[in-house]
UniProtKB/TrEMBL annotation:
NCBIfam families: PRK06170.1 (NF004816). It comes from the Bacteria. PANTHER family: FATTY-ACID AMIDE HYDROLASE, FATTY-ACID AMIDE HYDROLASE 2. This is Amidase. GO terms for cellular component: endomembrane system. InterPro entries: Amidase_CS, Amidase_dom, AS_sf, FAAH2. PROSITE patterns: AMIDASES. The lineage of its organism: Bacteria, Pseudomonadati, Pseudomonadota, Alphaproteobacteria, Hyphomicrobiales. It comes from Bradyrhizobium shewense. Residues 27-467 form the Amidase domain. SUPFAM superfamilies: Amidase signature (AS) enzymes.
């Protein structure tokens, strides 16, 4: 069956087509549903289908369009990570004991998407507890990468990235604390934006069965995913802004414009190496090509700077603070094992694995001192962004790897140019932006020699999300972006 002309269009393009009456919202919704029914037996991206309500919302959108209404997402098909509450649909986070939990209210971000006219098709698959760069659980099974079904689509927003790559609508919602927006976008060749910390309120992106109340979870954010850079800004503008029952009482959002509108005006720092975790030849080659193209377009590109914070210490600090947060939710037996392991560590052991153990078992006093170190790191980044507009660097060290569901992640290995590295050490690359709450946009750069997506992240200044987003748009326009996977380009 030939694919529809709409299957891989951007949300911006679809919105224009809807306004011009070249297509209806019902037709777009049915096109996406048809693709899901045709292909998702192989991909398994959509774990919860909500097609009846989607068709009803599409009919309402067509009525509104006929009246001349205009909303940012009116009539646009959207998918949503399983971890967001949608009234009447299960929210499990992959935990089997929660398989029957169904919230009665939408998450705030879901309400905003619906109010903007978005047509929600269903929910996308996740790993258990959102705790992996693969997306599998005992409730919904395993999600596969549309470019190679034997490989991970990334995680924890892996169902969302796979859905976008396979043509199941142009937009999706995801979340990120360990790269969970950017990593799956990287592995599936699509776009994602990790917003500045606390830019998008997370009420209703809540582990079941806890109540959906306003809460700031250290370093954790929600954000947009798309097949086009311009679509990221479109969805971010819908999701962003303080929670009206909390910070919105006294604050309003007023993000600054992008620093520049032309590539030639950008001052960029391009990094392709990490002293603790290298990037492989595919990633370094893609970055080298991009750096050359940016230079050719007139951008001011530096490959190193003394202003860049100490990669080693920043990565160690991130491991401790991340695991201090995540470890609070670990079962007692896991924490007991971590304490025993941490007690055996030498003070001279500065490996990332050692820092993760220390973080899992750290005292509040230790966290307070780490928070002070993070404040100093933020100051370093502010200084750097006086000289540079953005930093471009890897998201992960390799393209998508084969599924590996062995239970102990610390015993898994990732092969980088022939040498094995500890699987969770990959946190070092996404952690660059996460630790200090900086905005970071995932941008695809094409395919590796093996046909797997490669890409980079663009890190911008605090609350200047429009700068990396704009740079992503310019890169897409000048050098190309999303490449449909051959298996699903029909």
């Amino acid at each position: 069956m030939a694919r529809s002309e709409w299957s891989f269009k951007s949300a911006v393009e679809l919105s224009a087509a809807l306004t011009a009456k070249k297509v209806s919202a019902v037709e777009l919704t049915q096109d996406a549903i048809d693709r899901i029914e045709r292909h998702d037996g192989k991909v398994n991206a959509i774990c919860v289908r909500d097609f009846d309500r989607a068709r009803s919302a599409a009919r309402e959108a067509d009525v509104a369009l006929a009246r001349g209404e205009r909303k940012p997402l009116l009539g646009i098909p959207v998918t949503v990570k399983e971890s967001f509450n949608i009234a009447g649909l299960p929210t499990t986070w992959g935990w089997t004991p929660q398989k029957d939990f169904k919230p009665t209210e939408d998450a705030l971000s879901i309400s905003r998407v619906k109010n903007a006219g978005g047509v929600i098709l269903g929910k996308t698959n996740v790993p258990v507890g959102l705790g992996d760069w693969q997306s599998y659980n005992d409730i919904y099974g395993t999600t596969n990468n549309p470019y190679d079904l034997g490989r991970t689509p990334g995680g924890s927003s892996g169902g969302s990235s796979a859905a976008l790559a396979a043509g199941y609508g142009p937009l999706s919602l995801g979340s990120d604390i360990g790269g969970s927006l950017r990593v799956p976008a990287f592995h599936c060749g699509v776009y994602a934006h990790k917003p500045t910390y606390n830019l998008c309120p997370t009420r209703g992106h809540t582990p079941p069965p806890f109540p959906a109340v306003p809460m700031e979870r250290d370093m954790a954010v929600i954000g947009p995913m798309a097949r086009s850079a311009a679509d990221l800004a479109l969805l971010l503008d819908v999701m962003a802004g303080p929670d009206p029952v909390d910070l919105g009482i006294g604050y309003k959002l007023a993000l600054p414009d992008a620093r520049h509108d032309k590539l030639k005006d950008f001052r960029l720092l391009v990094i392709d190496s990490h002293p603790l975790l290298p990037a492989n030849a595919d990633i370094r080659g893609a970055i080298e090509t991009l750096a050359g193209r940016l230079t050719g377009a007139g951008a001011d590109v530096a490959r190193e700077s003394p202003l860049f914070p100490d990669f080693r210490e920043a990565s160690r600090l991130y491991m401790r603070m991340l695991m201090s947060f995540l470890g609070a939710f670990f079962p007692p037996d896991i924490l007991a094992g971590a304490r025993a392991g941490a007690a055996q560590l030498s003070p001279d052991d500065k490996s990332l694995a050692a820092e993760r153990l220390r973080g899992m078992t750290s005292s509040h006093q230790a966290w307070v001192f780490d928070e002070g170190a993070r404040a100093g790191l933020r100051a370093q980044w502010r200084q750097l962004f006086r000289t540079f507009d953005a930093v471009i660097c890897p998201i992960m060290p390799t393209p998508a790897y084969p599924h590996d569901h062995s239970p102990e992640q610390e015993k898994r290995r990732i092969n980088i140019d022939g040498k094995d590295h500890v699987y969770p050490d990959q946190l070092a690359w996404p952690g660059i932006a996460t630790l200090t709450g900086l905005p970071a946009t995932a941008v695809p750069l094409g395919l590796s020699k093996d046909g797997l997506p490669v890409g980079v992240q663009i890190i911008g200044p605090f609350l200047e999300d429009r700068t990396p987003l704009r740079l992503a748009e310019l890169i897409e326009r000048e050098f190309g972006g999303f490449t449909p996977p051959p298996l699903f380009n029909d």
